[in-house]
Amino acid sequence: MTHHEMAHASRRAELAAAMQSSGAGSAAPLGLGKRCSNLFRDRREAPKRRLDLSSFCHVLDIDTSSGWVDVEGLTTYEELVAHTLPHGVMPAVVPQLKTITVGGAAAGVGIEATSHRQGLVHDTLLALDVLLPDGQVVHCTPDNEYRDLFFGFSNSYGTLGYALRLRLRTLPVKPYVKVAHLPFDAPGAFFSALAGQCQGDADFVDGVVFGAQQQVINRACFVDAAPWLSDYSFEHIYYRSLLDRGVDYLTVQDYIWRWDTDWFWCSKNLHAQQPLVRRLLGRSRLNSRFYTRVMRWNARWGVTRRLARWRGHFTESVIQDVDIPIASASDFLAFLLREIGILPVWICPVRGPAPAAEFTLYPLTPDTLYVNFGFWDVVETTQSYEPGHFNRLVEREVMRLGGIKSLYSDSYFAPDEFAQAYGLAHYQALKARYDPAGRMLGLYEKCVLRA
Known about the structure:
The chain has 451 residues and is α+β, with helices and mostly antiparallel strands.
């Protein structure tokens, strides 16, 4: 047993002892105590028995020859990437924001520009150790006695247990990434070309919709050398380069975190894309960690909402990622432009799972290409609507087109809709086996009722 494995075993023993001695008979549901979160939904939380897993934040082992990394669940992807790159590898899917934790991406849904080949974060899992609500830890693989939990853990959002240790696939990297920006002026041609790029040899594929007549595909490949290097970690803004440059070069680390500096483009809401404000904030505050803190402060105190009401306007936050079969992608974009009006929109193709690896709570059709639409902003109107009006429009259109919506943000599904979309019959079987005493909230309670 290595030093890291011994330390991990010690942390697990301490955790088991703490769970046995603190609140074992408490009626309050179990909840994870975290200082920060990448969930974007308002919560009306009742008292919970908070579990501190913050010490489970270490990279335990990297095997470059076999292509995997062992990591603890509360490790951020920023930390994980910092450990893997010196070994010449990266996690097969690295979500866009540095503060996302590995366990959080496995229990939720993690995606990035390698997803056209690698799928979602949970598609790259080889094994995971899950802390169950009763304090037991089970080792889950695709073919052992806990395979139902292995395939049922993704999209469970801390309602079946917490991932203490995960083994993820890795990919070999080169020092640099060459990015080609391919412009389009019609959605049909854009999505057709996107599908074609997913069949090619690109290491990374994503895109951005700037408008009905302006779309860009980003096709990126690892390279050994670069004639120049761009830096989007301070003064320059990555998403603007998509319209200004035909070809670009970044270090592999800068490419992985290209979206984090400006939280894609959401830094505009803090005026952080203005040169003077940018310099005043400084490099250390231009990142998703800082923006998330400001966003949560604003959500708590409602500053922008009050300013809008002062102007006679009404606002609704629409922060969503949805996966749509590529055959219906043009239809969904037309809906989005017509009914919601948020721009830009991030586009990321994702390959459905292999037929033998169906993840029960996030049921994508196997071996099918989907398109992830990421749109994050506030819809402001002069007319008052019922709460969740625009989010409900999104949910209904996603279901109509045979897609699925991530649950990290606000959801308004009726119980029967939710059961149909997320395999609730399978979920109830998992809940009965792994949380029979109901020590954790249910998925609908947590993700829709905001408990």
